[in-house]
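ZP: hey, is the magnesium ion complex queued? I don't see it on the tracker
AM: it wasn't, my bad. submitting now with these inputs:
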Amino acid sequence: MRIDTAALRLTLGYLLLAGLWICLSDQLLATLGLSVELQERLQSFKGLLFVVLTSALLYLVLHRHAQQFRTARLQLASNEERLRLALDATRDGLWDWDVSKRRIFFSEGYAKLLGLTPQTLGDTREDWAARLHPDDQEHALHALNAELHDQSYENIYRLRHADGSYRWIHSRGRLLRDEKGQPQRFIGIASDITQQRAIDDSLRQAAAVFDATQEGVLVTDAKQCIVHVNPAFSRITGYSSEEILGRRPTVLKSGRHDADFYQSLWQALKNRGAWSGEVWNRRKSGEIYPQWQCIRVIRDEQGRISHYVAVFSDITALKRSQRELDYLAHHDPLSNLPNRLLFTERVAHALERSKIEESCGAVLLIDLDHFKHINESLGHNVGDLLLKSVGERLQLDLPSGCTLARLGGDEFGLLSEDCAEAAQAAEMAQRLLRSLEAPFLLEGHELYIGASIGISLFPEDADSVEQILRNADSALFKAKSSGREGYAFYVQELTDYARQRVELASSLRQALDHQELRVYYQPLHDLQDGRLVGTEALVRWQHPQRGLIPPSEFIPIAEDNGMIGVIDAWVLEQACQQMVRWNAEEHSLRFVAVNVSSRLFSRGDLAQKVASVLAETGLPPEQLELEVTESAIMEDPDAALKILTSLRALGVRLAIDDFGTGYSSLARLKRLPVDKLKLDQSFVRGLPDAPEDAAIARAVIALGKTLGLKVLAEGIEQRAQADFLRELGCNYGQGYHFGHPQPVDTGDSTTPGGTGTTNPTSDAERGRSS
Ligand code: C2E
Ligand code: MG
Ligand code: MG
């Protein structure tokens, strides 16, 4: 037990005083020599006085002590209140661990951090540890144990809140020891730092983003002094943060933007607090580059501007690829010439200009002739090289104001923005055709290529881009059909023709189903004895509105849309069936001739088709003659040889139609397994007077003789022509002189090319009279 020195001193003082009082007062009474009775009375009085005095003294001492105790208690209460208020204000909690009693006092504030009361929180270390987050348990307890050897303590961990969530707690404390140095109390405060941690986390993330982002970031203060930049900023601009901090963003100015630009930027920042757009800036190296930039105004709590943040990306590469994409979108990769898109844009622009300036221009569509054959025979590689070289040739000495484009495939377009007269355009077309005359030397091949050109003038022929191009296309078609390697101008009739073609094409599809096709037969005569020997089947289309349409109008359409196969097969069947009927009627007719389209001729299954029709109808093969035009054979002579050979093997006869128009090579002709040449009617027309026609007729007949082929002359309209040809030794004749193509009258006895009469001569008479 500790001895209170103040109390001891007081007690000893009292003991001394009381002792002195007893001894001295008794001595004094003895020296006074008073009577025993008086002495006894005085003794009693002295005793009473002592009691009174010591009582007064006791009272004084107790009173003072009580006063001191009250003051101390008041002070303690006020201290406690102050501490509680301070803890409440900081929302901190107090903990006080009595080490010896193994109890922890948790203040109300502490319990409140976890949504609890001190009672529900408990007062043992185990109660507390049970609330620790499993991930934090080990390190939190370890830190606590370490603290028992140390003085000050600080720890961060998570505790489970009453609502089940975990709160981050920051705990600081101090260990108090007794005189012997043994841990006695461990006391401290704890605060909830969950929110702070979330802020710290997002700040850390923001900082990482700031550093790692590919976008340059620049922060200035309100006075536009740069206070912060990120690594990307330095990478893009070339300025390190040391070089740029404290300076103004104007050091980056390129000088490309005028005052208005910056004014509208600042206006946007003022009104909307943000601006974004493309800016050209200057790098440290002096290079000017484009960047996409967003600027934002940052305001403080009072709404005053505190900072500006600019985030930007270098769009040099983007711009470059945009330019490249733009180039790709508008140019043909093979020839590097403008493509259809750019060409159309330029035509639109030129048309616009021509209307304003009252000027004229021309569009020329240039299509290579027989380019397909080069691709097919020499491969696409050579084809591509040729297209490239053609582009280069065409481009040579082009007048200024011209755009040459490759519109696709083997089609090129030329726009001349200054072409006052048609003659000028014609001259240009001729020049282009001439430029292709010289051969192209490609990969060891010497190649010749011609072209056809369609010309449309504007604004004369058309007032829209589509119309200009459509017109040029019609003109090109005309150029192609009037013999290749030429040019043609657009005229209104061409469009009408094209429209008709489109209409015909769509109704042609139903023509067969609706039984609108007819086969007419034209007689073929032996010129020497005048006898009818055969007949040619010629197709017609009995159109419900337009009447009888000749094959020259719809056969090319059928060849384009692929219907020619069905049509020719149908005609072949009809002709063979008819021939079988004539045979049954015992006509003297020896054969029927059927035309074969050049399109079918280039397909392999022709012989098979013919064989099956012959088998189905039962017509002897030698009674069928197939006519193939000379140009069809000459388009691909090697393939023609194969097909003709296989047809010949069936036993059918073969004739070359329109002979003289297709530039046959005599060497090739010699090898073809044909029986007959049909001299084209264009050479018969001028007979017997035109010397050139006479010369050609003579030559073809002589050629036929030499090669052992029969010769038939087409288009004989006059007796004089027939006589002349007979004298030249021509074997057969066909024409209006002998008879027009006629349908077979099914109701009655029929003759080829005649109606209801068995006498072929009467047809010839009719032909003559027409
Ligand atoms: P092509 O085979 O040369 O037929 C002769 C053409 O000359 C026929 O025209 C005939 O009517 C016409 N013609 C006959 N004699 C005379 C005459 O004295 N004077 C004149 N000016 N012309 C005469 P069409 O029937 O209009 O046939 C034209 C072309 O259409 C034919 O020429 C032939 O190439 C083709 N064609 C006709 N029918 C068919 C067919 O069924 N299939 C195929 N693929 N083509 C056919
Ligand atoms: Mg024919
Ligand atoms: Mg013919």
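AM: back. Residues 754-770 have pLDDT under 50 and may be disordered.
ZP: great, adding it to the tracker
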